[in-house]
Amino acid sequence: MVYKKIIFNEIKSSKLISVTILAFFLLTSYLLSTSGIIIANLTSSINHLMEASKTPHYLQMHIGDLDAEKMDKFAKAHENVADYHVQGFLNVDSSDIFINGNRFANNSQDNGFSVQNKNFDFLLDLNGEKVYPNEGEVYIPFAYFLNGEISEGDTLTINELDLTVKGPIRDSQMNSTLSSSKRFLIHKNDYEKLIPFGRMEYLIEFLLVDLGKITEFEGDYNNANLESNGPTITYSLFKLINAINDGIMIAILFLISILVLIISFLCIRFTLISKIEEEYLEIGILKAIGIRNKDIKKIYIVKYFVLAAIGGILGFVLSLITSNSFLKPIKLAMGNSGLGLEGYLLGFFLSFLAFVITMMYVNHILNLFKKMSPVKAIKTETTEYEKYGSEEFKLHKQVFMGTNVFLGLKNVFSRKKLYITFALVLIISAFIMILPNNIYSTISSRNFISYMGVGQSDILITIQGGVNKESNIKDLIKDLEKDTDIADFTVKNGKKYEVKLDGGVLGRLQLVSGDHNKFPPAYVSGEIPKLDNEISLSYLSATELNKNVGDSITLLVGGVEKELTVTGIYSDITNGGKTGNISFADDAQASLWSSIPITLKEDVNPSEKVEYYKNNFKDIKVTDIEDYIGQIFGSTISSVNKAAILSIIFSIYLTFLITLLFVKMLVIKDKRGISILKSLGFSSNNIKLQYLIGSALLVLLGIILGTILAGTLGQFLTSKLIGVFGVVNFKFNINYLFVFLITPAVLGIFVYIATIFGLRDIPRMRISEFIKE
């Protein structure tokens, strides 16, 4: 009953402080709980999709002839193979696909047609059921349904074969835009009709008895000298690809929630210390009459316990209400998670954990009571945190500043500990606002292509290996050499070689040959290979092979061992991030594909060039680099953009609320000083100007340090996050207009508005009343 009265009186006497602290607890709880709910459901949805689809544990894509008898013999003899099959993937060039009569030429994905599998790797409809189309029907990749490129009821035409789009399919392997291949599902009879007009690829798929021994299985597969003319993908990589789009948004939300929690701590510290200063004499008297520190702490801690509990509960409830808007795209892409109430347990746990940490922090601050001397408290009536004097900062010594400017700055420097708290909040707010935007501007820029194993260019032409590949490239190169709009280009070929691993085991590595002086990827260390005995490795290849610059690696070239020296390590996220670059020529080894990066001269329209080469050359894929990045990272860019918008809203909210609270409390603390200034002839506007100058100084400091922090710590954290995909040495492509103009302007405006609101009581303060006190 006593504590109930204390809480009621505290909240009544400091409504703004109580509401602000409650708002921070609510926001922290909401963000943490929402992040937890999304993580739990995303993880479960991915697992549910992969279980329902029976996703293969090991996939080897292959272009070329297939020895089915040899493959069958290997699979049956291997003790770790539970099941296997070889699925045909009929690759049809996008320019040969028509949607309602319009050419599907702007698509950069490898589009293939398949039939439903019998035992595993099932393609599912939006109800999670296996799909068996009738003749004349086609089910489309989910990514094309989601972005609106193809809709239910559309007519898809390939060489006069018309197929009616019946709906999208969920494909546990190729759902994500990060997967460079997409499967269309059709009837077996339609599939047979299309075989003459496509290029056959094979998906060699295995279900294993023991998934933990997948590395050993991969070694056995390589040593058996089986088909491997294409990328290899494992179960864990399928999971990662499915999680990345929403995972980045969750990571940003989680980071923001941690930063909001830190701001909450700063807010609690500021309000608690201010309260202790205000009641320093009363605390001293309580200690003097024998009241224990433990009992005094209870008087203060009970208020924060109630506010944190209410804020935590409200935040959790709010997350339950709004989480469906975040979960809806996840459920649409991967189906229902299958979770009931347990799906919300992680959200509740994170919210409760924030409550516990908060109370521990409050208890830590209140340990100040142990250091307080009753005699000193009664004698001085103030704490060490409130010092107004400064020998170096005297009015009569200043020459260049006006009186109001001087007093405003003096107010900041003479109470540094209080103002540092406010500055830290502004630094974190600027950080929250800038970091997601830096991530968004980087991955949406054309420069991001350098992290994909390809140097910066305007257009990328790719040609898959096949019968007409060499003649196509020769004709194409002749045209490129004569084209006066082209500034530079080069031809790079992707080939697969066996590599000798520790213990004599053979692995396979996809290597790119060509002139690496042109269009080099982003190197982490070292440089491009220049000599025949040199090689550079992607970050993930170097990590897996345990190689550094200067180490040697042994390839089998034409059955003969060739020792190469590692000259550099670069970023690459293609082919699972595991590639390498070589400079020696090897005409005996067939190319899996060829790519031609192209830069154009100034004022040349990339779109027109793309159309020209699409219309004049068959069996090639021509893509504007911006479109290429958009098609692969479209969903990721969209997710990061949403997180960036949310971060701006949260940053404005935090800045306004904290500034209002800080200024309001300063005015209450300074009421005696304000009355003295009024008695000396300072107007209310003069006094307001002094506080505004202090706020302006801190906004400037907060924005500068927040920007530096976002560019250093933020870049470090982002690099660690996307490093798992093979992107290293990540550098922000900063939107300078947003960082150096929009952010300062927005934060400055809201700090100004909040400061004006916080100073509203100054004109109403009566001089006589405060002097009397």
Quick recap of the structure?
By secondary structure, the chain is α+β, with helices and mostly antiparallel strands.
| Order of the strands making up the biggest sheet | 4-3-7-8-6-9-5-2-10-1-11
Shape: elongated
**Tally of strands:** 22
Alpha plus pi helix count: 22
Estimate the strand proportion.
15-25%
Low-confidence stretches: 384-393
Mean pLDDT: 82
Helix content: 40-55%
| Backbone structural class | alpha+beta
Distance N to C terminus: 32 Å
Biggest sheet layout: 11 strands, mixed
- Alpha carbon gyration radius: 33 Å
Main attributes?
773 residues, eleven-stranded mixed sheet, six-stranded mixed beta barrel, 22 strands, 52% helix
Q: How is this structure best described in words?
A:
This protein is of the alpha+beta class. It is 52% helix and 17% strand. The chain has 22 helices and 22 strands. Strand 7 (155-158) and strand 8 form a beta hairpin. The longest helix has 45 residues, at 625-669. Residues 384-393 have low confidence and may be disordered.
